[in-house]
Inverse folding.
């Protein structure tokens, strides 16, 4: 986790912390905007609160003063101790004191100090109001406004990891004669190695880009410091870290960097070893005022907050680092890797933190406040852990985004169908922020389910109607095995009624009876499948089998019309996922149409050729060509439309349903006229590897 | 010893052919089977058989066409049509072409054998073996 200062040490810098402090010590926000210096000390004399006007008056940023003793401002610490004892005893004090500024200059300040007491009568804290003493010749007036340019953008930086580097730079600098480019490379390295411990609100606002302090803390300074002045600030850091004088400050005017105009950067060592403070003063290099920027930021936040799309901001930066390590070990198939390491998905569920949510997100899940949702991401994936896995794979593979329909559980236990969209951070972007959006599609899905039901009913009705057209064929098909059974049974009885019953013959005949019985039963099964009202279902299917089974329904129709049928099936076709009955329905429908077309034709060849193929791009194709009159060119475009028919008794739903069935299978169906005459139909469906066979 | 009468069976359904053939054999008749009308015509069976049992709906050539072809070729072979087709027109055509009977599947063995007996003639009818 990132290093953080104790909460109480940061009362003045961010709206969030402000609220926090207000709640703890009931400081009015108004002190933030007071033109007078307002300082709150604890009873030991350590600074507890330091308003912007104090920064302006004394030059010490709040960041550097919180937690420090009052003695830091005074050279006469003996006097201060005595003064403090009296103050706590008497409850108040007023007068002029001399205070030290970062530049070492002493200023005279008019101060008023009041002790606030707890209910039990013991001193609780001390409030001090201060303004520059008029006796010193300063004029009260315009200076009492605290312009933005007077508020330093402050940084606390940890350079402990760069100790060796700093020593190296100092040595080379002293030695001289080093190529400037080499030197600059070292400076850049230093800015990269130095890590942010804390920043104040102004720094956050100027370079943090609305992303909040937590996302800056722990990051390299180089991630935020303007490129133009990185070398200069690194130089100052080396000066401060190698300087002999305790408490000395090092400052330099920097070139305008597009953020601040001619910023003045001051660097000094903190008490804590390996830490430095940086204060940057200067007017914003932008015509927009601070107030304007604040308002624009507020508008932006408000926009996101009120957006009707439920949004989650997620910090998965540590997972990004883990993925990098995994990638370096040569892993490319992250899905397989996660199958072997399911604990990594659990790690993400419990450690990837949600850093912000908007109102729509709270509403979607039925939370009472944002805090209910600001937890590790796991709660979004209680129903579908698999979706979290998919999100991780998308990140690993470097996708820009990922989207899927999944299920999420609300706080009151409802399960919603949602479309989840994930936007990953850009590779090499400054910050690692992933955005999740969830759209409730429960209603849409239930509507789609109703439509699917209607479609299934319609498809079923069409099948029944088709079967009706085929009753003669079907009756014939079942009657054949029944006739064989009857004759075989009667022959058996004849063998049995002999004086010397021929058991061997009867055995053979009984075997045939059983076989014919099974054949009749199979045919009944097929018809029942076609006739049954059922939900579409996907199973592993073989297109060749489907074509052969379809012929059962219509073979006698074809033969009775003296139509020759040629079947050319591909030798081997891959299995695919599909609805067997529905695809049979398509083939039977196309065949019936062709039989009727050929039948209507008195002269010429009576022929239907059907076949299956594997297309070049690995899809399954079924083709049918007949020697009928073909399709009138004007009808070609409309032939798959619902209720389009050229038959007197036809409803015109057969081909429309064929098309919707093929579309359900992700494929397409086309009708054309063959150059050699007759109509030609072709449907192509992509191969979807059956589950578990991949 | 009189020759065993020969019954020819033409049907595209193997189960039917085998069943009929077995019935002929148990009755003491000889039997030859064909899976299509052309197969029967190409064989010299039309001249050797004493009776023909044929289906109507068959790929290639129908039973009616077969009958027509035989009559056109001058054959007077007794023909029994055995079918599941309930087509009055086809039945009339068959009878007009001199078919001895139009029977529908499934057929009772006695009905079929009676027709074969009258086709072959009582004098040639074998005694059923084993009775």
């Amino acid at each position: 986790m990132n290093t953080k200062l104790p909460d109480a040490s940061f009362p003045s810098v961010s709206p969030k912390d402000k609220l926090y402090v207000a709640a703890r010590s009931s400081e009015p926000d108004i002190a933030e905007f007071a033109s007078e210096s307002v300082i709150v000390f604890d009873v030991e004399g350590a600074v507890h609160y330091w308003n912007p006007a104090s920064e302006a008056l004394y030059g010490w940023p709040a960041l550097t003063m919180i937690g420090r003793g009052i003695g830091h401002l005074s050279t006469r610490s003996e006097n201060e101790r005595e003064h403090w004892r009296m103050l706590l005893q008497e409850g108040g004090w007023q007068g002029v004191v001399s205070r030290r500024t970062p530049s070492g200059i002493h200023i005279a300040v008019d101060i008023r100090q009041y002790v606030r007491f707890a209910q039990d009568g013991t001193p609780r804290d001390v409030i001090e109001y201060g303004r520059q003493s008029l006796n010193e010749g300063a004029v009260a007036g315009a200076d009492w406004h605290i312009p933005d340019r007077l508020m330093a953008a402050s940084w606390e930086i940890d350079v402990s990891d760069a100790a060796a580097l700093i020593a190296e730079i100092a040595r080379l600098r002293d030695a001289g004669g080093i190529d400037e480019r080499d030197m600059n490379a070292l400076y850049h390295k230093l800015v990269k190695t130095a890590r942010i411990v804390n920043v104040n609100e102004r720094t956050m606002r100027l370079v943090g880009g609305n992303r909040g302090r937590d996302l800056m803390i722990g990051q390299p300074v180089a991630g935020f410091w303007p490129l133009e002045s990185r070398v200069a600030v690194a130089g100052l850091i080396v000066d401060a870290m190698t300087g002999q004088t305790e408490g000395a400050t090092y400052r330099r005017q920097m070139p305008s960097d597009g953020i601040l105009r001619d910023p003045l950067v001051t660097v000094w060592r903190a008490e804590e070893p390996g830490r430095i403070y940086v204060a940057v003063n200067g007017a914003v290099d932008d015509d927009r005022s601070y107030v304007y920027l604040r308002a624009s930021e507020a508008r932006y936040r408000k926009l996101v907050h009120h957006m009707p799309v439920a949004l989650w901001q997620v910090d998965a930066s540590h997972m990004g680092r883990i993925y990098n390590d995994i990638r370096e070990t040569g892993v490319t198939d992250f899905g397989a890797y996660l199958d072997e390491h399911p604990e990594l998905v659990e790690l993400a569920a419990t450690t990837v933190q949600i850093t912000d949510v908007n109102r729509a997100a709270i509403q979607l899940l039925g939370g009472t406040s944002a805090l209910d949702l600001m937890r590790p991401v796991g709660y979004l994936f209680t129903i579908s852990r698999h979706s979290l896995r998919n999100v991780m794979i998308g990140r690993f593979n470097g996708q820009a985004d990922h989207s899927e329909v999944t299920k999420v559980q609300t706080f009151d236990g409802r399960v919603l169908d949602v479309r989840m969209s994930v936007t990953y951070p850009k590779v090499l972007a400054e910050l690692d922020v992933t955005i999740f959006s969830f759209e409730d599609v429960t209603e849409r899905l239930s509507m789609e389910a109703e439509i699917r039901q209607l479609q299934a009913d319609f498809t079923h009705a069409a099948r029944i109607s088709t079967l009706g057209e085929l009753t003669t064929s079907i009756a014939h098909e079942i009657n054949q095995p029944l006739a064989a059974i009857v004759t075989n049974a009667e022959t058996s009885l004849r063998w049995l009624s002999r004086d010397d019953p021929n058991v061997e013959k009867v055995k053979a005949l009984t075997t045939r009876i059983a076989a014919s019985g099974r054949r009749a039963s199979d045919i009944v099964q097929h018809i029942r499948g076609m006739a049954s009202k059922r939900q579409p279902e996907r199973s592993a299917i073989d297109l060749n089998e489907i074509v052969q089974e379809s012929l059962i329904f219509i073979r006698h129709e074809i033969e009775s019309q003296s139509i020759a049928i040629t079947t050319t099936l591909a030798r081997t076709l891959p299995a695919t996922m599909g609805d067997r009955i529905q695809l049979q329905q398509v083939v039977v429908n196309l065949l019936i149409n062709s039989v009727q077309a050929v039948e209507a034709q008195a002269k010429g060849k009576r022929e239907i050729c059907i076949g299956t193929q594997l297309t070049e791009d690995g899809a399954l194709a079924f083709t049918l060509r007949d020697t009928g009159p073909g399709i009138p060119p004007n009808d070609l475009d409309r032939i798959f439309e619902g209720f389009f028919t050229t038959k007197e008794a036809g409803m015109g739903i057969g081909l429309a349903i064929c098309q919707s069935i093929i579309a359900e299978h992700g494929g397409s169906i086309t009708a054309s006229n063959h150059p050699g005459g007759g109509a030609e139909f072709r449907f192509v469906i992509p191969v979807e590897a059956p589950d578990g066979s991949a | 010893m009189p020759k065993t009468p020969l019954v020819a069976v033409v049907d595209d359904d193997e189960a039917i052919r085998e069943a009929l053939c077995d019935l002929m054999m148990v009755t003491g008749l000889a039997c030859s089977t064909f899976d299509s009308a052309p197969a029967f015509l190409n064989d010299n069976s039309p001249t050797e058989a004493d009776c023909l049992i044929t289906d109507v709906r068959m790929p290639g050539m129908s039973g009616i066409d077969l009958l027509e072809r035989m009559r056109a070729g001058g054959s007077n072979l007794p023909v029994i049509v055995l079918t599941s087709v309930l087509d009055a027109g086809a039945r009339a055509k068959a009878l007009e072409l001199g078919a001895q009977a139009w029977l529908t599947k499934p057929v009772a063995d006695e009905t079929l054998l009676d027709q074969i007996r009258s086709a072959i003639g009582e004098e040639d009818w074998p005694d059923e073996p084993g009775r």
About this structure: Residues 1-26, 136-149, 287-291 of chain A have pLDDT under 50 and may be disordered.
